[in-house]
Amino acid sequence: MIPELPKVSQTVEIGEVDEGRCIVHDSRHHSYFRLGIREAAYLRSLDGSRSVEQLQADSAGDYSAEQVMQLLQWFSAQQLLELPEAAAVTTSRWQQCRRWLAAWPDLRLELHNPDAWLTRYKAQIGWLFSKAALCSYLLLLTSPVLLYLVEPSLYLQSMQNLTPTLASADYGWLYLLVILTIIGHELAHAVCCKHFGGKVNRMGLLFMYLHPLFFCDVSDSWRFSKAQHKVAVAFAGIFFQLVSGALAFSLFMLTGWMVLYVYVVLSALLIALNLLPFVRLDGYWLLVHALDEPQLQHRATQTLDYCFRRYVLRQPISVQAVKPLYLYFAVSNLILVPAFLLLGLFGVFQLLQAISVGLAWSAVSAIAAIYLFRLLRNLQRYVRGLSRDLQVPSS
Questions:
Q1: Are the beta carbons of 5 and 54 closer than 8 angstroms?
Q2: Which of 95, 118, 133, 163 is the most buried (most CB within 10 A)?
Q3: Closest to 22 (Cα-Cα) out of 40, 9, 8
């Protein structure tokens, strides 16, 4: 909904021009957008003193009336415009329920704002990026190889003594190591973001595909002008796991403690999962920064939509250049996201069936119904859009 007097939201901050573009940050919704210079200037000019009709009639912005409406609709859709207070009050219970269903279970529980703590220890953080620290990381990463070269029997003896099961007490140690690794993974993102000048205002828990995960909001890295700094922030968590995994494997070779071996295997699996670029994990953001395409998922979806309309529905739409990478990404995302959801449902069932099979089926059915509701709602919107585009205007 476009307000009668469009005004840029007070929580929106428009950054400086960098390479012909501006980074727009909405602190209320923790979102970032990259706009052209003209679009950013137009957004900044919306002060609430002119109506939509006045903006369309004004030619000073070098936009046609249709282009002005398209800009306002996009700004409104991205929640960059200030809404009247009445708009937030007049929502019905059904609308509130629909919004809750649309947001759940992708909810985030914020536990801590680490920015002040990170700022206090910024000098120590700087040392973590010094040449001495980098040499230490290299030594730790290669420590298993160095140990094998010095004493091959350490590796051979440790591998020969592998046992298929762990003692009951060992599972507690394994669980503790995994939790510490996950926390260290997120802290590595935060430390790297702070080192390059970003803010880290949120840490907490989220549910992704029904699995509880720690998260660290390092979206402020979008402000960085250098792509390698963005890549470093996205890779920091995986790098921490590589270093800690190499150290754990070296200790396993020295002690033969089976918990360390299982921990290394689990850590390797977590790294492989994180590197998947088709869901919004570290691999996705690495690909985003490598391609310099902040709206990668949106572009990929647009590419798939274009191919479906043109080559399946045979719509007479203008020819566009199709990037194969975007198409492969969209198809893979279309396959893997339901697969992850099914795995999440299976995990919930496995967890609850120990209490009651009936409770497990009830919970899984309720969660599946919510996802089905969201799927049907999105399909309905898409079909409506297709029907509207397929309508032939009367002469």
A1: no
A2: 118
A3: 40
Q: Within the chain, how many helices (H) and strands (E) appear? A: 17, 6
User: Sorting pLDDT into bands at 50, 70 and 90, what band is 87?
Assistant: very low
Q: Assign residue 254 a region: left if phi > 0, alpha if psi is -120 to 50, beta otherwise? A: alpha
Contact 80, 24 (CB under 8 A): yes
Rounded to 5 degrees, what are φ and ψ at 169? -65, -30
Per-residue pLDDT tens digits for 168-214: 889 999 999 999 999 999 999 999 999 999 999 889 988 777 777 88
Distance CA 321, CA 317 (A): 12
Instruction: List the structure tokens of 333.
Output: 């995302």
List the strands of the sheet with 108-112, edge to edge: 108-112, 203-208, 211-216
Which residue blocks in 82-151 are alpha helix, DSSP H?
85-89, 93-103, 115-120, 122-127, 131-141, 143-150
Q: Report percent pLDDT > 90 for the chain.
A: 36
CA atoms of 369 and 148, how far apart (whole Å): 54
* Confidence (pTM): 0.80
Helix (H) or strand (E) holding 183: helix 168-195
* Nearest C-alpha neighbor of 19 from the set 226, 191, 249: 226
Q: Would you say 208 and 347 are in contact if contact means Cβ atoms under 8 Å apart?
A: no
Q: Phi then psi for 39, rounded to 5 degrees?
A: -65, -40
Residue 152 backbone class (left: φ over 0; alpha: ψ -120 to 50; beta: rest): alpha
Token pair of 31, please? 């979102």
Q: Say if CB 108 and CB 204 are below 8 A apart.
A: yes
Q: Which residue has the tokens 């939201």?
A: 9
Supply φ then ψ for residue 343, to 5 degrees: -65, -40
Query: What CA–CA distance (Å, rounded) separates 237 from 188?
Result: 5
Question: What whole-number distance in Å separates Cα of residue 337 and Cα of residue 124?
Answer: 40
Q: What is the DSSP string of 262-308?
A: HHHHHHHHHHHHHT-TTSSSHHHHHHHHHHT-TTHHHHHHHHHHHHI
Burial of 323 (0-12, 13-18, 19+ CB in 10 A): middle
SS3 call for 1:
coil
Q: Using CA atoms, how far apart are residues 188 and 346, in angstroms rounded to an integer?
A: 31
End-to-end CA distance of the chain: 31
